[in-house]
Amino acid sequence: MSRALPAVALLFFAAAALAQERAIPLSEVKSGSAFLGADLLSLQKDEFANPGMLWVERGEKLWRQATGKRNLSCASCHEDAKSTMRGIAARYPRIDAESGKLLNLEGRVNLCRGRRMGAELLRYESEDMLAITAYLARQSQGVPVEASIAGPARAHFDAGEAAYRLRRGQMNLSCAHCHEANWGKRLLSETISQGQPNAYPAYRMEWQTMGSLERRLRACLSGIRAEMLPYGSPEYLDLELYLAWRAQGLPVETPGVRR
Amino acid sequence: MTARIQVPAKVMRGEIVEVRVLIQHPMETGYRHDDVGHLIKRNVINVLSCRYNGVEVFRADLSSGIAANPYVQFYTVADQSGELEFTWIDDEGKQGSERQSIQVT
Q: Which of A33, A185, A214, B79 is the most buried (most CB within 10 A)?
């Protein structure tokens, strides 16, 4: 009895520590679409009128288009994306086994283009990059987000959480101040969302076009008057991994429609 | 310019059909300035029309007030099988067109 007690206590503390790890419990995790008005929500759900589908359609063409020194297309190796890419985007960002680097979907596309196809790399926010990533993520529609933070990803995850909690800019705010401590409350005319990444690349009304998750992160940074980092910088990647872990279980909604 | 057209593939004669059009276009208003303060020239799709077996059934003159990637929806009466042809043109003179067949039974 006297021995069993500390063991039980230890278990209890271990469980408490695990529970503490998630600031927003899994049962309360809400997609950005839960904070949308009825008009935008119905636009996102409308398979035809959702403007993001223009990029998905373009991505489908790009998938089959041979390019680069080796005259290969994505389909040359990966064949029909509808089956081979199902669920893939839901597991990004992830560690590339070959290089050991953390990659988001954009990074993976460019790695393939550079290493395998001998093709020109695509820029962030270029029409082609948005199209191919939207097409890829679309193949995971409805698949729950599942980020692996084990092994070499752990260091990136920790750095991502640190980036998430770092106060920045003239307003001295971290991501957590809005999206963890105050989600659901009003900020002027808008409801603060949880800042979940499961609908990106998404069509944003403010942009009047499609944009990547990093563009959205930069928009937040600009909003709190903090320094915006260049696209593809390691801090964004770490943060994206943390966001994916935070969004665990949310279905992929790409192409999302957002304010 | 990517465009999406939605017309029911099979309809009954005399039926009212819903036609939906979504065109990728920046619809630059002409009121915005670039980073160095120069006015960005207006570039919008200024006319969109639809011909049903050669007869114009819909025409819209668009201008600065329309959002990017315009979505247009209208109705027409299905009288015979054939083709709907959509054409549009923007301020830079770029033209686009798309065809969609319709089967009337």
A: A214
User: What is the total count of domains within chain B?
Assistant: 1
Q: What is the CATH number of the domain that holds B30?
A: 2.60.40.10
DSSP A169: T
Write the burial class of residue B101 (CB in 10 Å: 0-12 exposed, 13-18 middle, 19+ buried). exposed
Q: Note the ipTM here.
A: 0.91
Residue of A nearest to B25 (CA): A209
Predicted TM-score of the model (pTM): 0.91
Q: Using DSSP bridges, classify how beta strands B95-104 and B10-11 pair: parallel, antiparallel or unpaired.
A: parallel
Provide the residue range defining the domain that includes B49.
3-104
Q: Is residue B59 within 8 Å of residue B51, measured between CB atoms?
A: no
Give residue for tokens 């798309």.
Answer: B98
What is the nearest CA distance from B21 to chain A, expressed in angstroms?
A: 8
- Annotated catalytic residues of A are 220
User: In sequence order, what are the residues at sequence separation of 6 or more whose Cβ sits closer than 8 angstroms to the Cβ of residue A95?
Assistant: A101, A102, A103, A148, A151, A152, A153, A156
Is A255 in contact with A134 (CB distance < 8 Å)? yes
The verdict on a CB contact (< 8 Å) between B68 and A208 is yes
Distance, in Å, from the CA atom of A160 to the CA atom of A239, rounded to the nearest integer, reads: 4
pLDDT given for residue A1 in this prediction: 45
* Residue B100 sits at the chain A interface (C-beta within 8 Å): no
For chain B positions 23-82, those within 8 Å of chain A (CB to CB) are 24, 26-27, 67-69, 71
Local structure of residue B55 (DSSP, 8 states) = E
pLDDT digits (tens, 9 = 90+) for A165-192: 999 999 999 999 999 999 999 998 889 9
